[in-house]
Specification:
By secondary structure, the protein is α/β, with parallel strands linked by helices. The chain contains 9 helices and 7 strands; from the N terminus they run αααβαβαββααβαββα. It has a 7-stranded mixed beta sheet, with helices on both faces. The structure holds S-adenosylmethionine.
Length: 264
């Protein structure tokens, strides 16, 4: 969580977050809308991975004030309100959780932020016309689809189907020169193979941010797949980045390690 970026993760913290009832008993619960509804009915704000200030510079390189921006899986993050305060007014947020949507609408209206559209919608079936948005952004939302992926080198077909449904929807609603920004703990050797699937016209690049453990800031620019594009290499050619658990914080740690436990 972003509120205490320097805190080390220890067993006490992990047990506390589990016993608080915030982190679910199993990582699979992150796929259950009832879990999110229950959680958002009690929790005011939780910023997955890192807050806006940590990746603002990376993000602002790609945004223009007149851009239409879709945020997928807003939860109770402050991302859309921070974007609004930075001058981006054409914002739409969606979440599968009706409670998150209701509370986000009420919060934005209470703090005088008008004009952000907040809708209940499923990222696997985006309810928007083709080529509607300049930018689609998600933070930690796609990662939820991986909680029951099995072997990350060889995810279950059901996981791949869901991720592809999401990516195809995002690709479709992006304008011809639009950009998908994905903020994730998923390492490039796992994510690239999905991002670079045939049929997508976007180029795939990434940066990292964060101290200690680095999160990935992927930028997928539609229409810019190089003509000499070659899909990412074979799995065996790639090197795993080492993951320093002690550098992940609070629930990010639980999320990540629970996913790993579940998938071994
Ligand atoms: C890990 S949280 C990330 C929340 C927020 N983006 C942040 O950075 O703090 C995942 C969010 O995705 C939402 N979500 C899960 N499945 C979804 C789906 N199929 N469509 C849209 N939102 C979904 C959850 O309700 C939750 O708000």
């Amino acid at each position: 969580m972003d509120s205490n970026p320097s805190s080390p993760v220890d067993e006490t913290t992990i047990r506390r977050r589990r016993s608080d009832g915030v982190a679910p008993p199993t990582a699979k619960d992150y796929l259950n809308p009832d879990y999110w509804n229950q959680r958002f009915s009690e929790e005011e704000h939780y910023e997955w991975f890192k807050g806006y200030s940590h990746f603002r510079d990376l993000l602002l390189k790609h945004l223009l004030p007149n851009h239409s921006v879709l945020e997928i899986g807003c939860g109770n993050s402050q991302l859309c309100e921070e974007l609004y305060r930075d001058g981006f007014k054409n914002l739409t947020c969606i979440d599968l959780s009706a409670v998150a949507v209701d509370r986000m609408q009420k919060k934005l209206s209470a703090i005088g932020v008008d004009g952000i559209k907040v809708l209940e919608a499923d990222m696997l079936d985006l309810p928007f016309a083709n080529e509607s948005f300049n930018v689609v952004i998600e933070k930690g939302t796609m990662d939820v689809l991986f909680v029951d992926s099995g072997d990350p080198w060889n995810p279950r077909p059901s996981t791949v189907d869901k991720v592809m449904a999401m990516l195809e929807g995002v690709h479709k609603v992006l304008k011809p020169d639009g950009m998908f920004i994905s903020i994730s703990f998923g390492q490039p050797h796992f994510r690239r193979r999905l991002f670079e699937s045939p049929g997508f016209t976007w180029s795939v690049n990434w940066n990292t941010f964060g101290d200690g453990f680095h999160y990935f800031f992927y930028t997928l620019k539609k229409g810019e797949r190089p003509s000499d594009y070659k899909a990412s290499g074979q799995i065996s050619d790639m090197h795993s980045l080492s993951l320093f658990h002690e550098e992940l914080e609070d629930e990010d740690y639980i999320f990540r390690t629970a996913v790993e436990e579940l998938n071994t």
